[in-house]
Amino acid sequence: MAVSVVTASQMRQLDRRATEEYGIPSLLLMENAGLQAVLELERAFPYLTRSRVAMVCGKGNNGGDGFVVARHLFDRGIMVEVFLLARQTEIKGDARTNLEIIRKLGVPIYEVTTSQELGAIGEAIERADVVVDAILGTGTIGPAKGLFEEAIELLNRCGKSIVALDIPSGLNSDEGVIPYPSISAVLTVTFGLPKRCLILYPAASCAGRVVTVDIGLPRQLLTDPLLDVSLVQAEDLVGVLPPRDPNAHKGTYGHVLVLAGSPGKTGAAAMCALSALRIGAGLVTLALPESLNDAMEAKLTEVMTEPLPETRERTVAHAALERVLDLMQGKRVIAIGPGLSIHPETAELVRAVVKTAKAQIVVDADGINALGPNLDMLRDVAFPPILTPHPGELASLLGIDRDEVVRHRIPIAQKVATSFGVHLVLKGAHTLIANPEGRVAINMTGNPGMATGGTGDVLTGLISGLLAQGVSAGLAVKAAVYLHGLAGDLAAEAVGQEAMVASDLMTQIPEAIRQLKSHATPLASTKSPHPPFGKGGYGGIFGRG
């Protein structure tokens, strides 16, 4: 089952539809959320029965979830205290119902409505072993203010293990940034489906380990086609690599043309070409400035090279256009950009190739820079192009600030992909894949060690190599991004994140392929430093983080 990643609005709609269309009481959904959170607390803290738990609750439904948690902890004989950042009379709806239950049971409840009262409970929180954050949920808009902000800062200073319910208080559910003071949790138990802020960095760094739990929403709602953002999952990629025919020859698995390289940047071209072979392409030709050809012939024993006319600065000249078009004959894919340079004449060549190409195009690095303000041409190419920018490159391409891209990664990726009819791979933590229909997939493999020169060139080669074998563009991009991240995780395990270089990642591509083919390493169990999700109520969709 596809695992969607939702906005606050989408989650509210799912909750509402569960009640209105399926007759599932909202009170039952809150009960399920609280009970599942308790089960995760028990798994995370083996000595919970001998611990003191401080519940810090707001006055909304997130606080209501906290009241349910408090009741189940209390019923288990666990010492629990509830600190309510409001008057009890202010609590409404389902939250009110659960507050009344714990009040009648005798759960200690302390109203905290002033800064002085908040300071007074600091000592009580210091005595606690675990603190549960149930202050603000997904419905929060804008920064936490007043007492709520003070409470968040107090909890972050307390030095205790904080468990957040649904999302860490203070975060914007829909964004990957941390614009305001937010809870820094060791564990976040999120309800129903993961929220965007739990996946996109830097916001995800506040969440700690994330566990998504089943709260009883109907399967039909969780798989609604209107949910347009989902996670890349290994089980969806098994079988993506074409089987090897005993009667095959080198031409069976396609021929990649790589247009890349300039003085000082031949490594990018080499890694792109070699990665295409590593993923299974039968043949790869690297077209590059003629003065660099001899060196690359010596370096790349398995790759064919083609010297091209060059500028005075030894970059590929516009005069190479006719030769490049000839080379494209019989090729399923052309990769453009790794180490190509931003020379004006070279950029002009790139635009001419993109405009006239009859093969699938993968554009990276300097190829993206060459497009500049000419994105409209992408609508008219033979096949929807694949662009692989990082946030800075995309910002430059769109003429906006990089921070704007980081803040609104998903909607911007969707807009670019649909407006220009492209497959957009927006690299980062975590990499997004947007298709021309506006659907977005989020890849969860990979780690910070991959933030080193050359890893993007490897990705371009992987995408191109899969396309050469006849894999569809949408599936090729997902599989390549997933395998790229998995190879990075394997490299980090082998040499450490700090020591990792792009060639270490390339070395791990065969093992990444092997694991995917055997499905030996499901998505969430890859050994990254921050396992993305733990197993909740979905029977292993996420695995144990």
Written account of the structure:
The protein is an alpha/beta fold. The protein has two domains: 8-227, Rossmann fold (3-Layer(aba) Sandwich), CATH 3.40.50.10260; 249-473, UDP-N-acetylmuramoyl-L-alanine:D-glutamate ligase (3-Layer(aba) Sandwich), CATH 3.40.1190.20. The protein is 39% helix and 14% strand. It contains 20 helices and 17 strands. It has helices spanning 8-20, 26-44, 61-75, 93-105, 115-120, 122-127, 146-157, 219-222, 266-278, 293-299, 321-327, 344-356, 366-371, 391-398, 402-407, 409-420, 455-468, 473-495, 502-507, 509-518; strands spanning 52-57, 79-84, 109-111, 130-134, 161-165, 187-191, 209-213, 229-231, 255-259, 283-289, 304-308, 333-336, 360-363, 386-387, 423-426, 432-434, 440-442. The chain has a ten-stranded mixed beta sheet with strand order 8-17-16-15-14-13-12-9-10-11, sandwiched between helices. Strands 3-2-1-4-5-6-7 form a seven-stranded parallel beta sheet, sandwiched between helices. α3 (61-75) runs parallel beside α4 and α17 (455-468) packs across α18. The two termini are 19 Å apart.
